[in-house]
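hey so i finally got around to running the thing on that chain from the lab meeting. sorry it took forever, my laptop kept dying and i had to restart like 3 times. anyway pasting the input first so we r on the same page abt which one it is
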Amino acid sequence: MLRTPVAGRRLEILEWLKEPALHFPARRRTTSPEHGVTAGALAHKLGVRRKAAEVHLDLLARVGLLRVRKVGRRTYYRRDEVRIAEVARLFEKGWQR
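ok and heres what got predicted. didnt touch it at all, straight out
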């Protein structure tokens, strides 16, 4: 995931999701920031179609870096801070050898 040309974009998404209220205007968030953001809100920020944003979000969710929550017909994504910390520790251990 980190060796692809779009890895920078995915890292940027993770950074934005640290503080969704700061990076996503209220009109693009229909619920409170702790629910996360929708693919539509992310697509608007990235300037791409929703389907392209969903590809990034789904991949980040599959590797466990994002939590997914369905509220009605909408799907919200937010960071999984525990999993991100675990992955960061694994990288640190690997680089110290």
